[in-house]
Write a structure and sequence with these properties.
There is one protein chain. With 160 residues, the chain is α/β, with parallel strands linked by helices. It has one domain: Collagenase (Catalytic Domain), CATH 3.40.390. The protein has a four-stranded mixed sheet with strand order 1-2-4-3. The chain has five helices and four strands, in the order βαβαββααα. α3 crosses α4. The protein is 43% helix and 19% strand.
Length: 160
């Protein structure tokens, strides 16, 4: 089921390789559409492009890791309020993506930078949907989904 994604894009740092807003939305939609998520509502997602200092600060604050990282996902804690009808839109949460780290990783790994942006948007969106890689089973499921989505978008398996 094709879902509408209401995207808020915040650019806190400038990077030459940043995909345009439509491309970011398409990657997020591809991730949502590839899952078994049956909630048909439009989805709200905030994507913030951060520098290494902000990424490091967020990673330390929320994951106790003192380094910049490529993507951090902050799922919305959206519950339904008893007695009220469900809303027409669903807030998935926020993604913080460190542009300089994305570019550096793509270059170091010899991957197309646009594909690496796409992979991290897909990976982060799957986290917003509740997927994780804390167990072998969870990691295998995420990697399978990510490889499938990337192939559908014309890119190689990001884990190959």
């Amino acid at each position: 089921m094709k879902r509408t994604v209401n995207l808020e894009l915040q650019q806190a740092c400038s990077v030459a390789s940043l995909p345009d807003e439509g491309e970011i939305r398409r990657w997020i939609e591809a991730a949502i559409d590839a899952t078994d998520d049956k909630d048909g509502r439009a989805c709200d997602v905030l994507v913030r492009i951060v520098d290494e200092a902000e990424s490091r600060s967020l990673n330390w604050r929320y994951r106790n890791r003192d380094r910049a990282t490529n993507v951090l996902a902050f799922p919305a804690d959206e519950g339904t309020i008893p007695g009220l009808p469900p809303t027409r839109r669903r807030t998935l949460g926020d993604l913080a993506i460190c542009g300089p780290v994305v570019e550096r990783e793509a270059m170091r790994r010899g991957k197309p930078v646009d594909g690496h942006w796409g992979h991290l948007l897909v990976h982060g969106t799957l986290h917003l949907l509740g997927y994780d890689h804390k167990t072998e089973v969870g990691a295998a499921e995420m990697e399978r989904l990510e490889a499938h989505i990337m192939a559908n978008q014309g890119f190689d398996d990001p884990y190959a």
